[in-house]
Specification:
By secondary structure, the chain is α+β, with helices and mostly antiparallel strands. It has helices spanning 2-17, 105-108, 218-239, 280-289, 293-298, 304-309, 329-341, 359-379, 403-409, and strands at residues 29-42, 54-65, 70-82, 91-104, 118-133, 143-157, 162-174, 191-206, 315-316, 347-353, 387-394, 411-416. The protein contains 9 helices and 12 strands. An 8-stranded antiparallel barrel has the order 1-2-3-4-5-6-7-8. A 4-stranded mixed beta sheet has the order 9-12-10-11. Helix 4 crosses helix 9.
């Protein structure tokens, strides 16, 4: 018996030493110590009986709550059973070790709606017991048996670390071979030994968090779980945002403003094999409409004014945006340089949009594009009295189904005066 109790105590200690709080919001472990009165009801031999209420029972246990509704408890108990009034004298020691499931009825029944200091636990389980009567028929023989037990434990929270606990437990022994007094053998089978324990004690809560599972609101827990789930869903949705619609989510996209429709690599960067800053897919089309630097710097068969006014030099834009593409900002530099060299010149800026979208919206977008270039020119030192801007609306001169062609009409052109 001593070896068995020692093994169970070591098992309990190992549970405590292996404490791991899966949920970081509340503590799950506790130690319970209690003592009080008991009443063994049967079996007794003739002329033997116990007092209606006898003191001399103690228990100690450790409990782990899987969540704030359910848990497990391992506990050990001892009862000193003695003769009562009108009985022949006897004394028996009863030991038990029990593993029980625990239900937090206070949480299940939403006690938190009216109190945060009163709780109620229900426990049910079974284990191993031993009866050691001093007056046994065979002094060397002890009565070993299994038992089933159930009980209710009202609680009063004294602090976040301690609770006052009372308990009412009924224990039924299976195949108890001796009467409680130890003077007779029993012939019945099944639950032939009954014990009622009434006790009071303290529960000590372990862990680093503020509250224990016994006192966590069911509603708050569900709210926190829903909030956590919503945060995770929001993060997933945010991670999947693909602003430039190139098939690479923004959080992985190293170039989140890629021109719509052009091929990109796995990092979201537009493919540009010749490293000239222009995506390969639209380079051929731009070569027909966009003046090259050498043409302007060297004056090859055409004047700068003609290049600017006849649509060879344009500022191109991203889809549904008034932000100029980086590669076409040089066109603005050409105009700034020309107007600085010709102080009497004036320029009209005309914005355009592709056919995607409502005409009214595209008219506004074309004006915004022209206004954006206008603002850049003023910021570059060109007098606003020498500039004007207007929206040309939709340019439907290209194939609407072609991404590279639509890129060509999302632009601002210049007219020099």
């Amino acid at each position: 018996m001593k070896k068995t109790i020692l093994a169970l105590l070591l098992f309990s200690a190992s549970l405590l030493s292996a404490q791991e709080e899966v949920n970081n919001d509340y503590n799950k472990w506790s130690i319970e110590v209690a003592g009080g009165a008991h009443k063994p009801t049967r079996p007794f031999a003739d002329q033997y009986k116990a007092s209606p209420i006898s003191f001399g029972q103690v228990s100690v246990g450790t409990r782990y709550m899987i969540n704030n509704d359910f848990g497990l408890k391992l506990d050990f108990g001892y009862n000193a059973i003695k003769d009562g009034d009108g009985s022949l004298p006897f004394k028996s020691d009863y030991y038990r070790a029990s593993l029980q499931g625990v239900a937090n009825l206070g949480s299940v029944m939403n006690f938190e709606t009216w109190t945060d200091r009163i709780g109620l636990l229900f426990h049910l389980g079974g284990g191993y017991g031993r009866l050691a009567p001093e007056e046994a028929i065979n002094a060397d023989e002890k009565d070993n048996m299994m038992h089933v037990m159930a009980g209710l434990s009202p609680q009063i929270k004294l602090s976040n670390r301690i609770a006052l606990t009372t308990d009412l437990t009924v224990i039924g022994n299976v195949r108890q071979n001796y009467t409680w007094d130890g003077t007779e053998l029993t012939n019945s089978r099944g639950f032939n030994g009954m014990m009622i324990n009434v006790s009071a004690g303290l529960t000590f809560y372990l862990g680093k968090n503020e509250k224990h599972a016994d006192w966590v609101s069911r509603e708050n827990t569900m709210t926190e779980e829903l909030d956590s789930l919503n945060q995770r869903l929001t993060k997933i949705e945010t991670d999947l945002i693909d602003t430039d619609q190139d098939g690479v989510p923004d959080y992985l996209d190293r170039e989140p403003n890629t021109i719509s429709g052009v091929a990109v690599n796995t990092k979201g960067i537009a493919i540009d094999l010749n490293k000239n800053g222009i995506p390969d897919e639209i380079e051929a089309s731009l070569d027909q409409r966009y003046a090259k630097m050498n043409d302007i710097n060297n004056g090859n068969d055409i004047s700068v004014k003609e290049l600017l006014s006849q649509g060879y030099v344009n500022v191109y834009f991203q889809f549904n945006s008034d932000k100029p593409e980086t590669y076409s900002l040089q066109a603005i530099n050409y105009l700034v340089k020309y107007m600085n060299e010709h102080p009497s010149s004036q320029a009209e800026l005309i914005g355009y949009a592709d056919e995607i979208g409502a005409p009214e919206y595209n008219q506004q977008l074309s004006e915004k594009r022209a206004k954006r270039v206008y603002d850049i020119l003023i910021a570059s030192g060109v007098s606003e009295s020498r500039l004007s801007y207007t929206g040309g609306g939709v340019d439907s001169s290209v194939d609407k189904a072609s991404g590279p062609a639509r890129q060509l009409v999302r632009r601002v052109t210049f007219k020099l005066k």
